[in-house]
Write a structure and sequence with these properties.
Sig_transdc_resp-reg_C-effctor, 10 helices, DNA-binding, Tscrpt_reg_LuxR_C, Arc Repressor Mutant, subunit A, alpha/beta, Rossmann fold
Length: 200
């Protein structure tokens, strides 16, 4: 089956970027080349799979940028002759797949299809984690303590006793905490805390 895919290519190396674009020109893969993450972030495409050249820190940087801008694309990392350690690290950082360049158009098409399938199934937990963390960073220490209490199933009265404040003060912190997290309900706030990997 032929997949028509939009490939968002990020690679600092002009020559390699050109050779990848040229190699895929005859296939059904449409390539949008970018020199770096900042260039891509100036105009996020409507859809596609990102194929990024794997260099130290590029995948975490890309994921953070997507989280900040509220964008989400599956990521395939690539480089020439990757080591097993590099591949494992890229996947831990949030890539859904890894390919070694050079790769044929047919194999790349399969990798793109797998990336889209994986991302549709799971959504990107890494992006959600980074987004949740950035929301939690807005909370004061006290609001975070109230969230911990709420996540542990404690009532306002019990949270107040634990923190030596009145239930009314807990209520105020709780309202501020929900507001800063952009959560309508306590359950939503707990989900954000779980996504940020703060609650076990």
């Amino acid at each position: 089956m032929e997949h028509v895919s939009n490939l968002i290519l990020i690679d600092r190396d002009t020559r390699r970027r050109a050779s990848i674009s040229h190699a895929l020109a005859a296939s059904s893969i449409h390539v949008e080349p970018f020199e770096n993450i900042d260039e891509l972030a100036m105009a996020w495409p409507r859809s596609g799979v990102i194929m990024i050249h794997d260099e130290a820190g590029t995948i975490p940087d890309l994921i953070e940028k997507m989280a900040i801008d509220g964008e989400w694309y599956p990521i395939i990392a690539f480089c020439e002759e990757p080591s097993p350690r590099q591949i494992v690290q890229a996947v831990l950082d949030g890539a859904v797949d890894y390919v070694a360049w050079p790769i044929g158009a047919e194999d790349l098409n399969d990798a793109l299809a797998r990336a889209i399938e994986k991302s549709e199934g799971a959504g990107n937990t890494k992006v959600r984690e980074v987004m949740a963390r950035s929301r939690l960073d807005r909370l004061t220490k006290r609001e975070r303590e109230v969230l911990d209490g709420v996540a542990s199933g404690l009532s306002n009265r019990l949270i107040g006793e634990k923190l030596s404040i009145s239930p009314r003060t807990v209520e105020i912190h709780r309202a501020n905490m929900l507001n800063k997290l952009g959560a309508n309900h306590t359950s939503e706030a707990i989900r954000i805390a779980i996504e940020a990997a703060l609650v076990n």
